[in-house]
Design brief:
binds flavin mononucleotide, Rossmann fold, globular, 45% helix, single chain
Length: 238
């Protein structure tokens, strides 16, 4: 059973325009691929502690915070077949909830923890700031190893006021079909040049012994992103 996990950083939960746009899209994917499962995690409903900046994750692979919702969310993201990461534009950027998620998943960047996971961004906004927000989401996901295959964009206003909804439903039907085809294995998911560049950059960024050993154990130092991905798919390790 294939599963899409969507993590949405709006505090508005059920009234969130970003959640509504994402759920409409997921229902459209389901029309093409009825056995697909999905879960929408709204960060407005969950308690995530801010990063303490202690570097424990970089030294041990584990975060010192153990009693909030993040470890379970991270596990759900890792186990998913496809990730949607969404945010409203707040002051030209992602919401604080998404920033908190990124700070707490710092190690996924250095360890390329989501290697090969296909992903989409989902952003709603009223007037401006969409470009920067979407680029930021895409950059962070790419550094984590995700392969971004598209973007959902909608014009939203106050909570529950989503004038762009019908337009989005029509606009993203074709993308829903493509995502369904990717999940069922009928459409190839190709890494981008950014995946290759980010992987090459992360090879040179080893701050701790733990990170270095992790890359060594994975056998990634001499490989390109595509070769490392192939290796992960055939012999996952670590
Ligand atoms: C604190 C705050 C800051 C915002 N900043 C922007 C902005 O910089 N640019 C913009 O176009 N919309 C901005 N908006 C509007 C939201 O992006 C828009 O209403 C969005 O659809 C809300 O999504 P949500 O319902 O999923 O929370 C802001 C809204 C709030 C509450």
């Amino acid at each position: 059973m294939k599963k899409i996990v969507a993590v949405i950083g709006s505090p508005n939960n059920e009234k969130s325009n970003t959640v509504t746009m994402t759920k409409d899209f997921l229902e459209a994917v389901k029309e093409f691929y009825p056995t697909m499962e999905y879960e929408v995690i709204s960060l407005g409903e969950t308690l995530i502690q801010p990063c303490r900046g202690c570097w424990a994750c970089m030294k041990t692979g584990c975060c010192i915070h153990k009693n909030d919702a993040l470890p379970e969310i991270m596990q759900k993201i890792r186990q998913s077949d496809f990730l949607i990461l969404g945010s409203p534009v707040y002051e030209n950027m992602v919401s604080a909830q998404i920033k908190m998620l990124f700070d707490r998943t710092f190690m996924w960047i250095h360890l390329v923890g989501l290697m090969g996971k296909p992903a989409l961004t989902a952003v709603t906004y009223e007037e401006d700031g969409r470009w920067l927000t979407e680029k930021y989401l895409t950059a962070l996901m790419t550094m984590m190893g995700c392969i971004t295959v598209g973007h959902l964009r909608g014009i939203g206003k106050a909570p529950g006021c989503f004038p762009g909804r019908e337009h989005c439903k029509a606009k993203y039907k074709a993308l829903a079909g493509q995502v369904a085809a990717m999940l069922s294995g009928n459409r190839k998911i190709r890494p981008s040049i950014y995946n290759r560049i980010c992987f090459w950059m992360m090879k040179k960024h080893h701050h701790t012994d733990y990170e270095y050993q992790y890359w060594l154990d994975k056998g990634w130092f001499k490989l390109s992103y595509s070769k490392a991905l192939q290796k992960e798919r055939t012999h996952p390790k670590g």
